[in-house]
Amino acid sequence: MMGMGQIAKGLRNGVLAVSLLALSGCTTLTSSNIAVSQTGEHPAPNVEPEDTDDAAIGRREHPRIIAANGGVYSDRSAEIMVARIVGRLLAAAEQPNAQFQVTILDTSEVNAFALPGGYIYVTRGILALASDTSELAAVLAHEIAHVTLRHARARTDRTRTTEIVDRVITSVFGGDTSTDATANRTRESLAAFSQSQELEADKEGIKFSGKAGYDPQSAARFLSVMSRFATFSAGAGKGNEGFLSSHPSTPARIQAAIDTAGSMFGKADLGEVDRDGYLASIAGMTFGDSPAQGLIIGRCFLHPTSKFTFTVPQSYVLQTAQSAVVGVAGDGEAMRFDSADVQPNVALTDYLKSGWIAGLKTDSVISQNHNGIDMASGLAKTDQWFFRVSVMRLDNQVYRFIFAAKSDASRFAQGAAATLESFRRTTDRDLASIRKVAIRIVTAKSGDTADSLAKQMSALSRGTELFYIINDLYPGDPVVAGEQYKIVTLQ
Q1: Is the domain of 252 the same as that of 303?
Q2: What is the DSSP letter of 327?
Q3: pLDDT digits over 402-416, tens only?
Q4: Does residue 309 sit in the same domain as residue 422?
Q5: Neighbours of 162 (CB within 10 A)
Q6: Run of H or E including 302
Q7: What's the CA gap between 26 and 335, in Å, rounded?
Q8: Fewer CB within 10 Å: N-end or C-end of the chain?
């Protein structure tokens, strides 16, 4: 069973996996065999015979990575842009006949990583943070470098340990580890590389990017932006378990990137940036959490796709992470809400007793019905924690609440019960309250400043601060009349 610390980390459990279709089957963008994940199958990249092991690992983990990261983000203009960049980078890397599968993940996390066998992933969050084509090229070149430098092969033994992780997760939390949040997050951590490998990939990636005709200084520029965003995210209480933690943008690393670009390509500004083309490709993109994956409105969580909502006690602060929702109270309590794959013929009381909860008091399990929804609840206790656990079935999908506290006080019990009683189907009024947060591109006018443009985001929490970061500006900076900038707005 998970302790408070594990719950509070906001384990990411994406159960709404979207399948894939390689665009290379219908669109030829370069001479390279580049598949951009969209909908349909999971084709494996072409590999040499000695790479069979890597390909098998990539094929096995690929759908799990997608499930753990909110599914595939579908946006034709973004997909075409990414495919074109990868095609140029592969030619520069002298891999013109290699086949890579590049997947854009539908998550706000700023992340990019590679798996053995030529699988490369970038998130919607990293696309939103970049400001031009060369910055995204720097990220993709870095991941391609990991593959060409054989870092994936060196990491194969670590990846194989996922089988051990699977057994551990089964023993302490139960269930199918292919959809378990802890197992999926551990798999993603296995996509991380050592510090020396990261620096080596930085250097090689800058070489690929510069040879492909992109601005070689973009790597250092984007590392700096990511460092600022990491600080901003920490202030918002959001963890950075992805790219921002595995790719720390330290001053020394940023300076090394500047020096590498200078030594390889000189100090003069050169290479393609294509700011306008890049911003056009991400205009309208969802920013932050996707409404389709659920959203937080005050103390309420609302899932418009699955059409349910619930409200937590006043002391809880909610954070959403794809299909896992975590609430933490300042008085030493925490709550986790997620979903589980349970056969329709399995009774909820039987599922609750099936062994996935350590320390469950089986005689405490009862059947309930709130708001016309069948539920089952029970108590569990370990050496240090009390747990109130409930499961419910809505439209053949099973959802789970796990409340944890140091002591089973009456207020804790009342809060868990009130949350359970609040779980209901959404109404038309609930759904009408949803507003999408998206990127809008604006053109600076004469007299505009960074400060005046930032005010357009003042309706968002810390919106003006966010404006400066996503546009790589600082308060007081001038802006160029006629140049385009990113604004995040409610729609």
Answers
A1: no
A2: E
A3: 999 988 889 999 999
A4: yes
A5: 20
A6: strand 300-303
A7: 46
A8: C
Q: What are the beta bridge partners of residue 405?
A: 333, 386
Beta carbons of 273 and 221 less than 8 angstroms apart = no
Residue with tokens 């299909």: 323
Which residue(s) pair with 404 in the sheet?
Answer: 334, 387
What CA–CA distances, in Å, run from 422 to 315, 352, 368, 394, 474?
16, 20, 13, 14, 44
β-strand partners of 311 = 300
How far apart, in whole angstroms, are the C-alpha atoms of residue 304 and residue 300? 13
Domain boundary residue among 250, 282, 314? 282
Q: Are residues 461 and 383 in the same domain?
A: no
CB 35 within 8 A of CB 102: yes
Per the rule left: phi > 0, alpha: psi between -120 and 50, beta: everything else, 487 is beta
Kindly report the backbone phi and psi dihedral angles of residue 147, in degrees, each rounded to the nearest multiple of 5, phi listed first. Answer: -70, -50
In the structure encoding, which two tokens stand for residue 160, read together? 């194989």
Token pair 């891999």 in the structure block, residue: 95
Residues 129 and 144 in one domain: yes
Total-model pTM: 0.70
Per the structure, the complete domain to which residue 138 belongs is given by: 4-282
Contact 272, 213 (CB under 8 A): yes
The answer to whether residues 109 and 159 belong to one domain is yes
In a domain, 289, yes or no: no
Q: What is the DSSP string of 375-427?
A: EEEEEEE-SS-EEEEEEEEETTEEEEEEEEESS--HHHHHHHHHHHHH-EE--
- Encoded tokens for 246: 């595995």
Whether the Cβ atoms of residue 214 and residue 138 lie closer than 8 Å to each other: yes
Ramachandran category for residue 84: left, alpha or beta (phi over 0 → left; psi -120 to 50 → alpha):
alpha
- Owner of token pair 């399948």: 19
Last residue of one domain, picked from the residues 392, 409, 432: 432
For residue 328, being part of any structural domain is answered with yes
> Residue 443 sits in a domain of what CATH number?
3.10.350.10
CB atoms within 10 A of CB 410: 7
Distances in whole angstroms, Cα of residue 394 to Cα of each of 304, 349, 369: 14, 15, 11
pLDDT digits (tens, 9 = 90+) for 316-374: 888 765 567 888 887 788 999 999 999 999 999 999 999 998 899 999 999 999 999 99
Q: What is the average pLDDT value for the chain, to the nearest integer?
A: 79
- Examine the domain organization and report whether 21 and 165 are in the same domain: yes
Q: What is the pLDDT of residues 140-169, one digit of tens each?
A: 999 899 888 876 555 444 433 334 333 332
Q: Tell me the helices (H) and strands (E) count for the chain, helix number first.
A: 19, 17
**Tally of CB atoms within 10 A around 398:** 19
Contacts of residue 256, Cβ cutoff 8 Å, sequence gap at least 6: 199, 202, 203
Whether residues 318 and 353 share a domain: the answer is: yes
